[in-house]
Amino acid sequence: LALAAVASTGADPGRVVGRVYAANTAGAIIGALAASLLLVEALGTMRAQQIFMALSAIAACFAMAPLLWTSPASKRAPSEPPLGTFGFTVVVIALVAAIWTVNRLPAVPGMLIAYGRYMVTWLGQADVIYAGEGLNSSVAVTQLPGGVRNFHVSGKVEASSEPQDMRLQRMLGHLPALLHPNPESVLVVGCGAGVTAGSFVTYPSLTRLVIAEIEPLIPQVVTTFFSQENHGVVKDPRVSIVYDDARHYVLTAREQFDVITSDPIHPWVKGSATLYTKEYFEMVRRHLKPGGIVTQWVPLYESDADVVRSEIATFVEVFPDATIWANLQEGQGYDIVLMARNAPGPIDLDALAARFADPRLAAAAGSMRDAAFQSPLDLLATYGGRASDLRPWLDGAAINRDRNLRLQYLAGMQLNRYQGGPIYDAMARYRTFPDSLFTGSDAAKAELRERMGFISR
């Protein structure tokens, strides 16, 4: 059609084809970049589609322009109508149809942005209080009848005010912040609802907190719906937000941190498996100060044993002294936190209790209590084992590397499976009370044993 629209009698066909092909190539490049980087972000998918539809209608009118010209009677058959009348009628009908279609175009459903393939199952159960299309992803915030708010990215819940999610988000922050004697600088990979990052601003020793987030809408808009849970983290003067791919930021940053915590999206989501590779963890280790601590989220749901084994084994390749901390839901496996320290050593239970009682940490203690951690022992009771204990279970696990990204495909085949309970039960069989890890008074150790479910002997 394009060639027919520009061809003329006697024209060089090679030149015609070359010009059309060049115009199409240039248009495809410009259109793709303008749509993805400018139109969708500035106007949204619906408005961008309306513009495309209108441009297509205008282009069709140009293609049909010759039909508007009336052919001389000498060149028409007796029964043939004047092309001008026919062409005008066709153009009018096309324009009316285009205008009607453009005006009838619906907006992208907020529930689709929020729940994706599960949208139908949530209809009538959740209210969309925000939906937006950003530069890199579509995000939404929903509220359930009980008041629970969920933050979604492209059809998947990423964070929420649900008790089990609040526990996980606070664990990622308070575990390293409480165990580090003086956390001054922190890097948070992935903003989410801001709850993990907000855990750190409750510590008076903090002087600099960097949040690496690829989607600007998340810190700018989504976190405002969770300001109570995240302690208004984005407004804290100690906080710097870097809008960049986390992998690129960690690769290029020159500073080191006391704490690095990472809460990426599931590894089966395109691109996120790069935040679970051995090479990425090696970069993280290089950015830790002496005595620094790293925590990493690992989901047990929407996974299977091989996926979790791969994630843990890859982390342990770089941090052989890693420990596992469990976030259970109704006693069943839900997700875990991997933690490693640059300078492994015993955890003094009495010193932690004294620090927790320090009035200067009253805000941090309150933040922990909001997630049902009434004391440091409650937090430490989530202990799920050491990497050294799990070596028989991890034997033969696939190591996720940059050059293969095995995990992305391994996890992608399990995204509809919910085996968190059996996975954690398999890990818990290797769990023993680590006498060498916890030091302190006999009373404190006995209480911790009890809370962990071990019987004192």
Concise overview:
By secondary structure, the protein is of the alpha/beta class. It contains 18 helices and 14 strands.
Write structural notes for this entry.
44% of the residues lie in helices and 18% in strands. It is α/β, with parallel strands linked by helices and 457 residues long. The chain starts with a helix and ends in a 5-residue tail after the last helix. The model has no long low-confidence stretch (mean pLDDT 90). It has an 8-stranded mixed β-sheet with strand order 7-6-5-8-9-11-10-13, with helices on both faces. The protein has helices at 2-6, 13-63, 83-104, 110-115, 119-122, 163-179, 195-200, 217-220, 246-252, 278-286, 305-318, 349-357, 362-370, 376-380, 391-394, 406-412, 420-428, 442-452, and strands at residues 127-133, 138-143, 149-153, 156-160, 185-189, 208-213, 239-243, 257-262, 288-299, 323-329, 332-341, 347-348, 383-386, 438-439.
